[in-house]
Task: inverse folding
């Protein structure tokens, strides 16, 4: 669960602090990713590595996975996923294990719990010393959703 406070003006023009709480379920609902809690987060290594070979991977299967070692169509897919979902500030040429899990599930059309992975990285980032806003668009969507709920509660009372 992530807690935050947002300052908002009420109908009288006064500043009001609104407490916002969200969890994986809220993230899943707002982003409409279509996954569930029972979907896997970890894909078997043998399945991943077998798929990478079929995707034209030419590097070593242990260690870092540079996207340039894949065939051109898969290189572009990896590039898009890394830039959309990576939790790193840079080093976009190398892919991490969880990104390769996501790509494996996309290519094989398997279920994957993307919401849990995104939420876990958001929570990990809050506790880090070099904190920066990760997934700012997702956070803004969740804040907007919570403020919409807050507005309906104010209208009822």
Result:
């Amino acid at each position: 669960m992530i807690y935050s406070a947002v300052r908002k003006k009420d109908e009288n023009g006064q500043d009001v602090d609104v407490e916002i709480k969200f969890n994986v379920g809220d993230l899943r609902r707002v982003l409409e990713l279509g996954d569930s809690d029972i979907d896997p987060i970890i894909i078997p290594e043998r399945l991943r590595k077998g798929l990478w070979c079929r995707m034209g991977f030419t590097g070593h299967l242990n260690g870092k996975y540079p996207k340039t070692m894949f065939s051109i169509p898969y290189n572009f897919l990896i590039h898009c996923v890394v830039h959309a979902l990576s939790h790193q500030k840079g080093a976009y040429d190398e892919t991490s294990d969880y990104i390769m899990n996501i790509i494996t599930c996309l290519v094989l059309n398997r279920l994957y719990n993307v919401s849990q992975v995104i939420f876990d990285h958001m929570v990990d980032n809050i506790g880090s010393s070099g904190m920066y806003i990760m997934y700012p668009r997702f956070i803004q969507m969740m804040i907007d959703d919570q403020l919409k709920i807050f507005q309906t509660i104010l209208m009822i009372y």
Remarks:
- The first helix runs from residue 24 to 31.
